[in-house]
Amino acid sequence: MAASSSLTLGFISGIGMPELLIVGMIMLLLFGNRLPSVMRSLGIGITEFKKGIKGEGLTEPNATLEDQRRTDDASR
User: Fold this and answer.
1) Domain boundaries in the chain?
2) What is the pLDDT of residues 34-49, one digit of tens each?
3) CA distances (Å), 19 to each of 2, 8, 24, 43, in order?
């Protein structure tokens, strides 16, 4: 089996570098200056999901995200 330079997904024939650049440009146009905060929120969501899967970080359900971060930082 030959190595392919593009990622193949079931219904998509291939995603190469030009397609990824186009998607990146569209993201910049849509999110603009909000992109760093969107990515930060995505990262926080992923880490919270991983903590939830592991059973770590079980806190009060009504606590805000900032309260949870403070208790996580204090426990370290």
Assistant:
1) 12-75
2) 878 888 999 999 998 9
3) 21, 12, 9, 24
